[in-house]
Amino acid sequence: MSISKNYKVYTVPDSAENGYTCANEDYLGYRPYNPKTKKFGDYVFQSYGQIYQRASNFGSGLIKICEKIATNENKNVDFVFARNWPVAIYSINRVEWTVVDRALTTQSLYSVALYDTLGESSAEYILNHSEARVIVCSIDKIDKILKISDKLKHVKVIISMDDLNSDGIQKYPFYSHLTLSSIEVLKNWAKSKNILLTDVTTVEKIGATNKIPDFPPKSSDIYTILYTSGTTGNPKGVVSSHQNYTAAALTCYMKRGKLTKKASIVSYLPLAHCYDRNVENYILLFNGYIGYFSGDVERLLEDTNLLNPTIFTGVPRLLQRFYLTLSSKTIDAPGRLGDLSKRAFKEKLQNLLDGKGFEHSIWDPLIFNKTKAFLSKNVEVIITGSAPLEPHVNNFLRVALISVVADGYGSTETAAVATSQTSDDPSSGNSGVPYVGMEIRLKDVPNMGYLSSDKPNSRGEIMIRGPTVFKSYFKEPEKTNEVLSKDGWFATGDIGSFNQDGSLSVIDRKKSIFKLSQGEYVAPEKIENTLSKNNLVLQSFVHGYPIKSYLISIIVPDPVEFIPWAKGLPEVNKNETLQELCKNYNVRTAFLSEINKFCRASSLNGFEIPKAIYLEDKPFDVETNKLITPTFKLKRFDAAKYYKNTIDILYQ
C-alpha cells in the first residue's frame, strides 16, 4: 500500500486518514496475557476502523468529562472548547497509548509523554511544568501519581488505560500485586484528593453517547511536547508541531521506498521518545500494522518471532548483542560450520558491496535464512541511531539478516530526523545523508580544533534546518534562543564531519568538554563511545579535573563477556562472583591493560586513555542509582557526585 493521491498530508490526522481508508485491515495488536498459565498468547489485532472509532469516542468523552468538571467547580469552560491543551501519557508502549494519542489529535489537543521509568521527582516536574490537567496512565502508575498529588498544581483527572476491575489487573504479569480491594483503595484515595479516577473504556462509552464533531488541528498547532532527558538540571520540553512530525514521517517514507511485504513493526522503544513516535506515524503512510511488545525486552525476540515484522528499530547496543549471538553460531563457530560460514559471508558481502543486492541463491537457503529468522523472517529494513554501528557489525547484520541496516542521526528537536543512510548505500560507519527537505551545515568550533575548512573533511558543530525542526522549548525562551537562530538553524551541540561521499559522521560532543592540567581538551563522550565498542564494557563514565594530568574511568563490565574472560586469567578463583571479580586486584590490573591496548588500537590520544579504573558490578540505571536518563544518557554531574569518594581514591 502507499499514500493515496486523493488528499494532502499536513497534520498527523491527515496521515491517519490514509490508514483509515483501509478500515478493515489490521492496525494495532497486542499479546493477551493468561494469568493462569502465566504466558502471553499470539497477537490479537484491532483494525484501522476500530481504532478510529475508539479514538473518536475517547476524544469526545474527554471533552465531555472536562466540561463537566469545570462546570461543577464553577470555572470557565471556554478553555475546554478552545482546545490546544495538554494531556499527559504515562505508560509503556501499548495499544491504548496510541489510541489516546490519535484521540487527542481528533480534538486539537496535544500529548505530553512521560517515560514509563520516570521517578516521582521527574514526573512531578514534568506534570507541573506542562500544566497537564489530565493524565492517562497504566494502572500501575496511579498510586505513584496519587503519592505526589499534593504537589501537582493542575491535575484533575486520572484515566487508567486498564479497566478498573478484575480484567484490568490481569493484563500484565507486573500487575500481580494489584487486587480488586486495592483498586477500591485507589478510587477512595483519588476522591479524597478531589481527583476524578476513571478508565479508558468508560471515557470511550461517554464519548460514544455524547458525540462531539472532530476538531482537526492546523499544521502549526502543537502535536506533542517531549521532555528531553536532561543530563544536568531539569529536562526541557521540546514543543513540536503537526508539521514537524508529518514532515518527518513523509521524508522517511520518501527515503525508504517500497517494501515487498506490508510495513509492520514491533513497538518497544519508548513512545515518550521521538524515535518510535516518528516510526509509528511513518507506518500509517504504508497502511501498515504495529504489534506492541509484551512489556519486557527479555521477551522481545519472542515477540518479533511471532509478528515477523518487516521493519525493526534498534539501538547499537542491542544490535551488537544480535551480532555476538549470530556470529558465534556462524563465522566464529568452530570446525566446518565456521569455515563454511566465513566463505558464505565473504561472498555475500562482496555481492552486496558490488551492488548485487542482499539475497544469494545458494548461501541463503543453506545458512542465512536461518539467521534471518532469529529476528524476523520478513525483516527488510533495520533502522538504528544514537551512535553508528561498527562497520564489521553493520556488514555482518546486513548479510546475516538479509536486510538493509541503515544508520541515522537526529534528535528530539528534529523529530528524530536529520540524516540517514539510503537503502542502496553499502557503506558503514557513518550516519548517511540529509533527508529530503533537511539542510546540514558545520559551524567552526575553534577551541576544540574543529573547522569547516579542515582538509580532507570539513568538521564542526552540526547545524540543522528544515521542516522537522522544533518550535521552542516550552516556557523557556532563553534556552530556545541559545540553540535556535532566527533563520531556523538548530545548533545540536554535536560535532560532525562531512565524508568524501557527502555523508555525515558524528565524531564528538561539544558541551561536555573539559581541560586537563597540561591544557589538553578532553571530550569524555567520545572516549565513552570508544569504550562501549569493547565487548567487555557495558557502561562507562570518564572523568577528569583541570588540576589533574590524566583521566580516570568508572566501568561497568558486561557480565556475559567479562565473567568468562576474568575467570580465564591466571591466579583467579573460578568460583568468584561478579562482585568479587570486580574487586580482584589481578582482574582489575588485567582489565586496565586490556582497555589501554583497545584505546590505542582505536586511535585515541595518550591523554584520552584512562590511567586508573574502578570496576562497578551494579549497572547505571534510571531508578536505583539514577545515573542515566530514560534514554540511557549518562547524567555526568550526578555520576561525579555519586562516585566522588571513588574518584578521589583513584587519583591517589
What's the helix and strand layout?
Elements: H1 12-20, E1 26-30, E2 33-34, E3 39-40, E4 44-47, H2 48-72, H3 78-82, E5 86-90, H4 95-106, E6 110-114, H5 120-130, E7 134-137, H6 142-147, E8 157-160, H7 180-192, E9 196-199, H8 200-209, E10 222-228, E11 236-241, H9 242-256, E12 264-267, H10 274-285, E13 289-292, H11 300-307, E14 311-314, H12 316-328, H13 335-353, H14 363-373, E15 381-384, H15 391-400, E16 404-409, E17 419-420, E18 433-434, E19 439-443, E20 459-465, E21 472-473, H16 477-483, E22 490-498, E23 504-509, E24 514-515, E25 521-522, H17 524-531, E26 537-543, E27 552-557, H18 559-567, H19 578-583, H20 585-601, E28 612-615, H21 636-642, H22 644-651
Parallel strand pairs: 1-13, 5-6, 5-7, 6-10, 7-8, 8-9, 12-13, 14-15, 15-16, 27-28
Antiparallel strand pairs: 1-4, 2-3, 10-11, 11-21, 16-17, 17-18, 19-20, 20-22, 22-23, 24-25, 26-27
Helix pairs in contact: 1-10, 2-4, 2-8, 9-10, 12-15, 13-15
Q: How would you describe this structure to a colleague?
A:
Residues 42-474 form the AMP-dependent synthetase/ligase domain. The protein has 652 residues and is α/β, with parallel strands linked by helices. 37% of the residues lie in helices and 19% in strands. The strands form seven sheets. An eight-stranded mixed beta sheet has the order 9-8-7-5-6-10-11-21, with helices on both faces. Strands 14-15-16-17-18 form a five-stranded mixed beta sheet. The longest helix is centred in the N-terminal third of the chain and has 25 residues, at 48-72. It is globular.
